[in-house]
Amino acid sequence: MKAIKDQRKWHWLDYFLFLMRTIWFAYNGNSIFISTIGSEKWILLLWASCSYIIPHLFYRPGLIKFQYYIMTEVLLTGSLFIYLSSQHEIAVTYSFLLVPILTVAYACQVKPLIWLGPFLVVGTWAGSLFINKDFFALFIDTIIFYGIGFCLGRTTIVITANKELIASIEEKNKHLEYYSKRIEELTIREERNRVSQDLHDTVGHIFTSVITSLDALPFLYQADKKEAEKSIKEISDLARNGLNDVRKTIHHMSPMNHQTLVESVQELIADFMKHTATDIKLNVEGEAIKVSERVKFVIIRCIQEGLTNAKRHGQSTFIKVNISFKQEELIVLIEDNGNGCDELNLGFGLRSMKDRISALAGTVNFQSKSNNGMRITCNIPMAKEV
Predict the structure, then answer these.
(1) Which helix (H) or strand (E) holds 367?
(2) Are residues 20 and 155 in the same domain?
(3) Which residues contact 282 (CB under 8 A, 6 or more apart)?
(4) Residue 35 scores a pLDDT above 80
(5) Taking every annotated instance into account, which residue ranges of this chain make up the domain Histidine kinase/HSP90-like ATPase (predicted)?
(6) In the predicted model, what is the mean pLDDT of residues 135-160?
(7) Model pTM?
(8) Are residues 261 and 167 part of one domain?
(9) Does 17 share its domain with 159?
(10) Per-residue confidence (pLDDT) for residue 88, from 0 to 100
């Protein structure tokens, strides 16, 4: 809880106490004016005016220094009280202290100022030596006014702290609302990218297989009509399965969830070899540990894109896929004997592959030379997913 001395703007209670002090000064100043004569009257009025004005030089809106305020209050008001008590029989002498006691108690909310109360009791006892009033009655009055002022001070602290807490909560809510909108935008953008990447990989893979099969169909038809009819049926099944695959991609359903990573890759390669007449060799190194669905999905899509890219752009006839299970990472290597190129420009598919691997805190490296095929190396840290 922030102490009241940290505030620099007056609370409504500060204005209320200032109004009470002004009324108190006017009332007691009038009593002093009536009860004294000669030059002493004006000296006492000047003294009282100083006890009213000077403390508020250190306790005003925009500048609050409680140490100086309490010091001047005790010195000026306290000394005036003792002087009036010892030299004059003024009825309002003790009431002269009541509002300053209340204001001082209001201000003394932090250590060591909070321990000023006992000194006020001692001052009350000292004042009772000079006036005809029972000490117990003075003590009760002091406790009441000090208690009222102290409670008002604690109330101000609580109100100020609550206002600051509310302002802080509102500010944090604004930040949370902003971040929530940003996260929503990023989520939508990421989901769009994911869908576009999945559709690109799936559709590209299917059409590459279909086109390759259709290109070979006229020659097959001339050679063997029955085999051609069988091939047509397989192409139809491939297109139908591809349509289902696209639908699953749209609904974010991962195909082959019941299979292990190696089994899914074997099925993908077998299907690709069947429809593209491409020789593909799969090699698995290390113990084939279970990976998360997210990692499996990314690897399947990356191998799918690697095969499609090798056949479509590289005109490859042989592709090697190597999966290496290591303790800290999973390495996927895709090599082909295609055309290759000296200057590799990443298309949408390869960029999608790179984005997917990066999302798993992994890395992907592309190497290609003209007439020397292409080599794709994917490194995925396993610890990130365990």
Answers:
(1) strand 363-368
(2) yes
(3) 265, 266, 269, 321, 322, 323
(4) no
(5) 300-383
(6) 76
(7) 0.41
(8) no
(9) yes
(10) 65
The answer to whether residue 369 sits within a structural domain is: yes
CA atoms of 38 and 295, how far apart (whole Å): 100
Residue 117 predicted with pLDDT over 50? yes
In a domain, 301, yes or no: yes
The 3-state DSSP class for residue 285 equals strand
Quote the distance between the C-alpha of residue 308 and its chain's center: 42
Q: Per-residue DSSP letters for 187-244?
A: HHHHHHHHHHHHHHHHHHHHHHHHHHHHHHHHHHHHH-HHHHHHHHHHHHHHHHHHHH
Domain boundary among 171, 201, 232: 171
**C-alpha distances out from residue 260 to 242, 291, 322, 323, Å:** 21, 8, 16, 13
Name the E strands within 246-362.
Answer: 279-285, 318-325, 329-336
CB 153 within 8 A of CB 108: yes
Amino acid at 355: D
Give residue 276's domain range. 257-386
